Amino acid sequence: MILGMPMPLTTNASSLHAGLIDTAAGSLVRDAEQLWPTLSRLEGTYPGFTSWYWNKVVSGLSRGTRHLFWEGSLDAPSAVAILKREGGESKICTAWVAESERGRSLGRRLLEESIEWLGEARPLFTVPAERYAEFEPLTRRLGFVETTRIDSLYRPGVVEHVFNGSLTPSLNT
Fold first, then answer.
1. pTM tops 0.85
2. Where are the alpha helices (DSSP H) in the chain?
3. Which domains does the chain have, with CATH numbers?
4. Rounded to an integer, what distance in angstroms lies between the CA atom of residue 44 and that of residue 128?
5. Between these two residues, 29 and 26, which has the higher pLDDT value?
6. Which residues does the UniProt record annotate as the domain N-acetyltransferase (predicted)?
7. Each residue of 36-68: pLDDT tens digit?
């Protein structure tokens, strides 16, 4: 359905809603494609990120179970969040802020928007050990509670701090 075009008389509210979701999902998939050149460097931090992004995130955007928020332009974002709301799980999968933009509250704003979209005051969230000190003030401010630590969850020998729930070790989240 093209927005702004007259609806055929046989269109009902649910098909209109489905058309709007399809349009929004298609737009988010295109946005994901434009964000990729910036996000691709996360493969170095999270092995398997490329496969996860294209197979899980992009397909989830199409189904409405994943969402993206970003600050700045699509071709040079200042910050990006990737969210998952599926199978009873609400998770902030990725929270990334460009190094040059850190300390300007972009991460806080992005996480607050993420919490609102997820509909969960304390969604599942993980932070690698080397970024823990950087995220600690923000997680505390948002009321996140560290519930466990998992060694080698995403990278061998690296502890991942898990907030607000439990997480089964898997690259498929």
1. no
2. 13-39, 49-52, 58-63, 106-118, 132-141
3. 13-163 (3.40.630.30)
4. 13
5. 29
6. 27-165
7. 999 999 998 889 999 999 999 999 999 999 999
- Could you say which DSSP state residue 119 is in? T
Q: Residues 151, 143: contact at Cβ < 8 Å?
A: no
Tens-place pLDDT, residues 127-159: 999 999 999 999 999 999 999 999 999 899 999
Query: Residue 154 in 3-state DSSP?
Result: coil
Q: Among 135, 144, 142, which Cα is nearest to 102's? A: 135
Starting at the earlier edge strand, list the strands of the sheet with 77-86: 66-72, 77-86, 89-97, 124-128, 159-163, 146-151
